[in-house]
From TrEMBL:
The keyword Transmembrane applies. InterPro entries: HU-CCDC81_bac_1, HU-CCDC81_bac_2, SPOR-like_dom, SPOR-like_sf. Keywords: Membrane, Transmembrane, Transmembrane helix. The keyword Ribonucleoprotein does not apply. Residues 232-309 form the SPOR domain. The chain crosses the membrane at residues 172-193. GO terms for molecular function: peptidoglycan binding. It holds the Pfam family HU-CCDC81_bac_2. This is SPOR domain-containing protein.
Amino acid sequence: MQMESHIQELLFKHSCIVVPGFGAFMAHTAPAAHDTGANQLHPPKKTLSFHPRLNHDDGLLVQHLLKGKVSSSAEAKEQIQATVEEWKSTLESGNALFLEGLGSLKKSALERIEFEAEVHSNYLPSSFGLSAIEVLPKNQAKAAPVHESNERSFQLTTAEEIEEDEAGILPWLKYASMILLLISVTLTAFYFYNQDQKKNRLAQQEANDAIANYVQQETFYESSLIELPPVEVKVEKFHVMAGAFRIQENATRKIAELRAKGYDSQYLGKNQYNLHQVTYGGFENPKDAKKFLSLIQESENADAWILAKNQ
């Protein structure tokens, strides 16, 4: 089994997978998204990012290799090291490194590793097997045949009137018939217009209900997906903190700096001391948060800490 396959299997259970000597693949939960251009609803997913500075061996990948055909930790580490040397050689030669199911990496002109995640991969277990759902646009016309039928009826009535007029109908009766016809056509058009509007609203509501029910049944989500956005997903409660700033501009600058490095940095608002809080990333369980904190403290910021926040 290739090394990227081991990483993919681990991503379904963990949010941070470290490849010793190479970097860490981070998984971040993203909510369902509505693609208005393609009229599609995409299920919730885990998006990936890569952090080359987080490369200290935490033993997770080694332990996973031991569950396969690898007989010892030393052999597992040798396989990882050989793979890392091969990957680094590809990047040093100026070529892009494609990792199946994960994405592609390449070195920029500034010698920084840039990562582009595979868009079709989804490592969120609750969304496994789900694909994008087509969403009908609100302004889709469905009543064209009704208007066409109404137009034919109008033409037939006009022809009958012409025949009656040619047979010698009195002029006042002719004008009265035309007035009645005009009133009839107006009322008929207004009636069909109201019917069309009701049918369109009903069809749209049925489509929205079908989409919401489908996603709820497949993903076991209890939140309604009729209103887009937002869509409720699991809330990240354990945040690895980068700092707290008295001036908001400094917090904004720090977030931009961390995101440029590939971190999923977020602004958590003010704390009880009126300081603006900035994170490296958030997690749904404390184990992943503690693991990520250790990596950050070793390679990035020894003063980082974990904040448990109910949202």
